Amino acid sequence: MFFRLPIVKFFSRLLNRATITVALVLLQAGWLLWAFSYLTTGRIWVNAALRLLSLFIVLYLVRKDEDSSYKIIWIVLIGLLPLLGGALYLVFGNKAPSKGMRRRMQSVEKAHTGDLAQQPGPARQLAGDHFSGLSRYVARYGPFPVWDKTQARYFSCGEAMYPKLLADLEKAEKFIFLEYFIVRSGKMWSGVEEILMRKAAQGVDVRLIYDDFGSLLGLPKDFVVRMERHHIRCIPFNPVVPLVSVVMNHRDHRKIVVVDGSVAYTGGVNLADEYINAEKRFGYWKDAAIRLEGAAAWNFTVTFLNVWNAFRPSETDYTPFAPTPEQLPETSDGLVQPYADSPLDEENVAETVYLNILAQAKRYVYLYTPYFSVGQELLGAMKGAAKRGVDVRLILPGIPDKKLVFRLTRSYYVPLLRAGVKIYEYTPGFLHAKCYVSDDHVAVVGSINMDYRSLFLHFECGTLLYRNSQILALRDDALNTLRKCREVQLSDCRTNLLGTLLDSVLRLLSPLM
């Protein structure tokens, strides 16, 4: 009995859902490679057709309006594998989610476009401002309006946000909506779960959307059943199935909480212990979040309900979830514009917001990001801003959570440093915050990393702040964080021939990582 217990634990960990899924995917991949080899061996016409397909795919990619780095990797892959490359692109090259997901989500979003109409008052307040064009862009192509009558509070770490989040959940009277990439059993989730169960028992409408891949290893098998039993309705987003499919790339990376329509949270903080430093994984976990109270919470309410009703239709009228006039603060703290981005369309809202801030900066731009892997547009915008005299400072982790991705991030250092961008690595641990702040005038706090997945593949969200007091709070946090960082110099970036080759391969493969 003494020996059986550790053995049972070992096999229960080994034979979990994640390992079984990986094993089945590898088995499928092996079978597909064998089938391809069998079909092409000695079959001249099959080989000729596949080569012709690859040629047409390359010509199609040259003309396609798409991120250049993504096109380059596929053109190189087709050049290396002229028989297999074209067929691989047809199966895996389409970045858009599955037709079923697109149809459901776009149908709901289209039906509720009117719920996100821009109100004239807040828009007029930005008239003449050099960031008014950015606000109009987000309002039109998001579409997510800008709001006044909203108070904001910036949190420089997860453990500062957590008690306030619990207090807001305790005050819920009508509904609680949560949408997260990672939910993991532990101290942080236990504190949230206890309140959710109690509130649901009191009749509060409690709903949870969590990404199935992000939470794959963190939740028990009966999680949904247990939640539903306590009247907490759940949607595991894009459930992981053991299939060789690009559809699994599209994850819900958002972090959203909405309480009674008037209070909302977003940022980089997931519902797992490392985000409040209750668990040490990579040194101190530095994150960021923002709390909104007032009219601007509506953007996140609609964002959540659109996802919910795409997969679990519950209502067509969102009006009961809107904040009442009594819930709105009497004074405004600047203007606030929460927004979301998704791979459902060709509009890269998250990247465009970042590009606009860099293009219009006059004095400084400070950037937090845990991962840095960008295309020529963002890379050129950062270099261009620095070359025209803007103080551009990129703040990254000092202790990485993914060593290969960190190596990829460092491969960008030399061109950025030569252009005048200052790069800092946060020495106490892992920096997971995703923020921009510029000129004491505009800022972004959200879930959006500066990498290909966040900018093009994931469902993301952020909050734009204009003339808001929390812009200075974020700026001061960045300046304080810089004191705990090591500034990277060009002399730190020397590498040997093998290192240079590895960096080149990683840069080439970055859109697929």
Automatic annotation (TrEMBL):
It holds the Pfam family PLDc_2. It is found in: Cell membrane. Its EC number is 2.7.8.-. Gene3D superfamilies: Endonuclease Chain A (3.30.870.10). This is Cardiolipin synthase. It is a multi-pass membrane protein. Keywords: Cell membrane, Lipid biosynthesis, Lipid metabolism, Membrane, Phospholipid biosynthesis, Phospholipid metabolism, Repeat, Transferase, Transmembrane, Transmembrane helix.
